[in-house]
Design goal:
The chain is of the alpha+beta class. It contains 9 helices and 4 strands. The protein has one domain: Outer membrane efflux proteins (OEP) (Up-down Bundle), CATH 1.20.1600.10. The chain is elongated, with a radius of gyration of 39 Å.
């Protein structure tokens, strides 16, 4: 109920066109995302299984009680005239039983440690899910921001192309411009209008993704704004392989395989069990009796058709596979980090370059337009300058978007989770 109220309050807040903060999205995802909640429940389940494993080291005590009644008739013809009758027999019994597995060939210890490794792997799974959700959320957030920036840009381009179409129409009406140039300029204006509507559609698609991840609806374009500082900042964490959840999960799988081998080896060892029982019986018209017994049982399964042997061999191969998987995980994580760092660095360096190209294109378009108005440049010169300006503006948006997405990939490779804003 509290989570629902939080989501409603957030939705109300954002519907008022307040600027959306990254921390707001993270809080909403942590409180309402079903995938994260499912991973958390799996962790609780593994923790309960671990706690239950301690029961193997404790005795088992049970109470029992029984009450019975027997009615039967008899007939004895040896007596003169015969003898008939009925007997009603009643009895009660209650007692206590206890047993203790003193030694099970280390199988109980192996099961306990195996469940501990499963718990550790489940915890790592929860962190991996958090990392994956943060990556999805980060991508959706950046894509939505850049979709909003793209809408603003395409509105600017559409307005410019419409002004250009009116300008060329005036020149055509005055007899100084060809009709095909007028038609081309009108087509460019229509294309710009289409690009704007397509950008609005893409923006809505990104909002759907954000709503799926966070549960927040009623978002608007004014909720999103590109902070230029995020394009300049680098992630503040260094790559730590041995603390990455994916590495820790693979490590936990190795540990589980080793402890499963310990349980498999227990099949070659004897077992020792102790048991005790006490019970009291009451029979009708008979004095009650007390009974108690204690036993210590040793058992050694010398041969069982090779089951224990092959169980141990299976455990060995599982350990080998887990070791290989750990090594593969280490290499993949390291490769992903190096690749993400390289791509982020490259895209970050590209932004000043495309920005300079935009400045040059803007200066060229301004100069060529003035010269075209004065008859010093042709329509083709002017059209080329306008096209280069549009391409440069679009290139800046694409470069900034790619830089943000590469940043998200780098943070994901380092292991940023939702708990790390």
């Amino acid at each position: 109920m509290i989570s629902l109220l939080c989501i409603l309050l957030l939705a109300s807040k954002f519907s008022l066109a307040a600027e959306l903060q990254w921390s707001d999205l993270v809080k909403a995802t942590l409180s309402s995302n079903p995938d994260l909640a499912s991973a958390t429940q799996n962790l609780y389940s593994s923790e309960n299984a671990l706690k239950g494993s301690y029961g193997a080291f404790l005795p088992v005590i049970s109470l029992d009680a029984k009450a019975s009644r027997s009615d039967y008739s008899y007939s004895d013809l040896n007596f003169i005239g015969g003898m008939n009758g009925e007997i009603d027999s009643r009895s009660t019994q209650y007692g206590v039983n206890g047993s203790w597995n003193i030694f099970q060939g280390f199988s109980s210890l192996g099961t306990l440690e195996s469940n501990r490794a499963v718990r550790d792997a489940s915890f790592a799974d929860t962190q991996i899910k958090s990392i994956d959700l943060r990556y999805q959320l980060r991508q959706a957030y950046f894509n939505t921001i850049m979709a909003a920036e793209q809408i603003h840009l395409y509105e600017k381009i559409r307005n410019r192309e419409q002004d250009n179409a009116r300008f060329i129409e005036l020149k055509y009406n005055s007899g100084t411009e060809a009709k095909w140039n007028l038609l081309k300029t009108r087509a460019d204006a229509h294309q710009a209008a289409f690009n704007l509507e397509n950008a609005k559609s893409l923006f809505k698609e990104q909002l759907f993704t954000l709503e799926r991840l966070t549960g927040i609806s009623s978002l608007e374009i004014d909720n999103f704004h590109l902070d230029q500082n995020i394009l300049k900042e680098k992630p503040d964490s260094e790559f730590d392989l041995e603390h990455h959840p994916s590495f820790l999960k693979s490590q936990a799988n190795v540990t589980k395989a080793e402890k499963d081998k310990l349980s498999a080896n227990s099949g070659f060892l004897p077992t020792l069990n102790a048991s005790y029982s006490w019970y009291k019986q009451h029979y009708e018209r008979i004095s009650p009796t007390n009974n108690q017994s204690f036993s210590l049982t040793a058992d050694w399964n010398i041969f069982n058709g090779g089951v224990d042997y092959y169980s141990r061999e299976k455990a060995k191969t599982t350990i080998a596979a887990a070791d290989y998987n750990l090594e593969s995980t280490k290499r993949n994580l390291l490769e992903a980090y190096r690749k993400a760092l390289q791509e982020f660095t490259t895209s970050l360096q590209n932004i000043p370059i495309v920005t300079e190209e935009l400045e040059a294109a803007n200066e060229r378009a301004t100069t060529v337009t003035a010269q075209y108005r004065n008859g010093l440049k042709t329509y083709l010169d002017w059209e080329q300058a306008q096209s280069l300006l549009t391409e440069a503006e679009t290139a800046v948006i694409e470069a900034e978007k790619q830089c943000l997405l590469n940043r998200a990939s780098l943070e994901n490779s380092i292991g940023y989770s939702l708990e790390k804003l």
